[in-house]
Write a structure and sequence with these properties.
2 domains, Rossmann fold, Quinolinate synthase
């Protein structure tokens, strides 16, 4: 394994606006959303990290890769993406002729902004043609235009392995990039100093405390976690991967190192088995995903225009190409 870290000074963004209308009855909202969805020829896609009542209303729940693939094949003309900004942009890039709505346009991913073009240009100048810029899908549309191919946490190792270049600049997430490097010793992976603010709050000390309290528990960790947490894990994988691993495992207890929103799907998939799930003492919550609420979902279907996702013509072709390459490589 070979890895290198580059410096960058790219900014971060806040959590967006506060949730509103939470007191509105869930049953009434759910019924209205179902009616509006039919009127708008809409399909609702939700990430595992959004609140459980939003997941329950969705037609499909998944991780970034699953939602990206679904967005390409669904017949509905309106896609409601219950997630953060980069997810809405990805859906629009892959479906330029469809309407894509974000129930909370201010919900952003801080990590998506933790890269700058001068950093990329500097590394390209140093390594030339034997460099691939690999962009985690958790990134802005603009950052995708600076890149050669996108990846998700579930396919990053596979896609990087298949790239002809030996040198890989992995942006923006350092922790996922470091995990990829550990799995591909023949590649030289150059890391960018970006990170998920939610996963880096998970400390190895908290995991060890949980292991002492639950000695038979399987430790499952998302590759966005710090390296010392991954070293403690029995299983490392995407949100979907962790859910499937827990469902298939003979173990009865699991220590889960990712955002707590995953608990709904974990419990649904293991219902009746008696399996139990433990999260770190500092429970990882995505403040931006939490902004996506049922009232906002209903609001975007009532009046779509303010919630519509647009990607500028100057960015769309190059950004779309990186996503299309991801789907092509992932299918190999």
């Amino acid at each position: 394994m070979s890895e290198q870290v580059i410096e960058n000074n790219a900014g971060q963004t806040g959590a967006g606006t506060q949730a509103s209308g939470a007191a509105e009855p869930i049953a009434a909202l759910t019924q209205e959303i179902a009616q509006l969805k039919e009127q708008r020829d809409a399909v609702i896609l939700a990430h595992y990290y959004v609140p459980p009542e939003v997941q329950a209303t969705a037609d499909y729940v998944g991780d970034s890769f699953a939602l990206a693939k679904l967005a390409v094949d669904l017949p509905q003309q309106t896609i409601v993406l219950c997630g953060v900004e980069f997810m809405g942009e990805s859906a629009k890039l892959l479906n330029p002729n469809k309407t894509v709505l974000l129930p909370e346009p201010a919900a952003d991913c801080p990590m998506a902004h933790m890269i700058s073009k001068p950093d990329i240009d500097r590394v390209r100048a140093e390594y030339g043609d034997d460099l691939a810029v690999v962009c985690y899908v958790n990134s802005t549309a603009e950052a995708k235009t600076w890149s050669d191919v996108c990846v998700t946490s579930s396919n990053a190792v596979k896609i990087c392995s298949n790239l002809p270049q030996r040198n890989i600049l992995f942006i923006p997430d350092m922790n996922l990039g470091r995990y990829v490097a550990s799995q591909l010793p023949d590649k030289h992976v150059i890391l960018n100093k970006g990170y998920c603010p939610r996963h880096v709050t998970i400390s190895v000390e908290q995991i060890i405390d949980l292991e002492e309290a639950h000695p038979d528990a399987v430790v499952m960790a998302h590759p966005e976690c710090p390296a010392d947490v991954l070293a403690e894990a029995d299983y490392i994988g995407s949100t979907k991967g962790m859910i499937e691993h827990a469902a298939a495992s003979d173990a009865q207890e699991f220590i889960v190192c990712t955002v707590v929103g995953i608990i709904r799907e974990l419990e649904l998939r293991t219902q009746g088995t008696g399996k139990r799930f433990h999260f770190p003492a500092t429970t990882p919550r995505c403040e931006n995903m939490d902004l996506v609420t049922l009232p906002k979902l209903a609001a975007c279907l009532r009046n779509p225009a303010p919630y519509e996702v647009h990607v500028g013509d100057s960015l769309a072709p190059a950004a779309r190409l990186t996503l299309e390459r991801m789907l092509e490589y992932a299918a190999k």
